[in-house]
Design goal:
eight-stranded parallel β-barrel; globular; alpha/beta; TIM Barrel; 9 strands; binds flavin mononucleotide
């Protein structure tokens, strides 16, 4: 099997440590529910794929079955790179059963979500809610490690209420021969916008035997270098930065290889928005649904892209796709350079 190629259904494939390039960090597209679906992966594949993908999460409970649309993204993976299947849940037998079932698919491994801050998830003590119960994480990982012959990874935040809660979680993560751990440098309470605790990713890098993948606010090759230097991580997981700037994986590879990357222009961003519309917005859906989907994505792309803020205002007010694209054309048909680092959208600044 070729290094970094997709894994055949049921095959065990390489360990994540073997996927980490010698000369740069492993690049991972962060899982983002209702964003990083098959359609979004298709768009990203055109701009320069990451080295590893993670699915949206499979919801796991006593009666659950793997969601078909997520299975489809695994089966039709357009990026030509390995995929981890992410699960969210707290029921040990259900997680074991689902992991066994998912291992029959073309995945490189199973990832456990220990970070989702949604109240409906945390109130059931799943996702980020599990960070309040290191003992339950221990029980889940012990059972999963006995079942999962492929890579077993976890994606965690650095505590539930405050960063002091990370140390006991890290103690547990150290005990289960995990193949990689992705650390989002915020607590659950901090959601998406507080200052990132990169020092705690550095702590994880020093303690875990497996590759640590740093996550949080990597929005450019410059930020990528800073996060690698601050954390000693072996991989970078990028979420909102990749929605805003789909060139980011190529730019990071170029930065590490010394190549001079061509800088995208606002016109390139306009072209990207058109591609998102054609690929990620279902042509069979009502216009209101397509508009809603596009506005959700634009929420991560448009803030700060031009100094007046008028484009965000017009996009927010657009009642039709035509109005939305008229506004985009007015502000983005320009050879001005695109500044990926200018203020990014967060889910709190929803356009919809
Ligand atoms: C819209 C959205 C959906 C997300 N869904 C998931 C998810 O399904 N699983 C998960 O582990 N993290 C999820 N996250 C968290 C991201 O994977 C990532 O940890 C977070 O956005 C911080 O990284 P970033 O600063 O690069 O965006 C989501 C984030 C966003 C913004």
């Amino acid at each position: 099997m070729t290094h970094g190629a997709p894994v055949a259904p049921g095959a065990i494939g390489p360990r994540i440590a073997a996927l980490v390039p010698l000369d740069r960090p492993l690049l991972v597209l962060a899982p983002m529910q209702e964003v990083t679906d098959l359609a979004f992966w298709k768009v990203i594949a055109d701009y320069g794929a990451p080295d590893l993908l993670v699915t949206e999460y499979f919801r796991v409970h006593a009666d659950s079955r793997p969601e078909r649309h997520i299975l489809r993204s695994i089966r039709e993976n357009p990026c030509g790179v390995p995929v981890l299947a992410q699960m969210i849940g707290r029921d040990v037998p259900a997680l074991v059963r689902t992991a066994a079932r998912l291992q029959r698919e073309a995945i490189a491994g199973i990832d456990l979500n220990l970070g989702c801050p949604a109240p409906q998830v945390c109130n059931k003590e799943a996702g980020g809610g599990l960070l309040r119960q290191p003992g339950q994480i221990d029980a889940i990982l012990r059972a999963l490690r006995d079942t999962v012959a492929m890579n077993l990874t976890a994606k965690t935040r650095v505590g539930f209420d405050e960063p002091g809660q990370f140390a006991p979680v890290l103690d547990v993560l150290c005990h289960h021969r995990l193949d990689a751990v992705a650390v989002h440098a915020r607590t659950v309470r901090e959601m998406y916008s507080a200052v990132a605790h990169y020092d705690l990713i550095a702590l994880a890098s020093g303690r875990l035997d497996c590759p640590v993948i740093a996550n949080g606010n990597v929005s450019s090759a410059r930020a990528a270098r800073a996060v690698v230097a601050a954390t000693g991580c072996r991989g970078l997981m990028i979420g909102r930065g990749a929605i805003r700037n789909p060139w980011i994986f190529r730019e990071i590879r170029d930065a590490w290889s010394g190549a001079t990357a061509g800088r995208p222009t606002l016109a390139d961003v306009r072209d990207y928005i058109g591609r998102l519309h054609r690929t990620a917005c279902d042509p069979g859906a009502p216009e209101s649904a397509r508009l809603g989907r596009l506005k959700k994505l634009l929420n991560f792309i448009l803030p700060g892209i031009e100094p007046s803020g008028e484009l965000v205002r017009r996009a927010r007010a657009a009642a039709s796709e035509r109005d939305l694209f008229l506004a985009c054309d007015e502000f983005l048909i320009s050879q001005s350079p695109f500044d990926a680092e200018a203020r990014r959208g967060t889910p709190c600044e929803a356009l919809v």
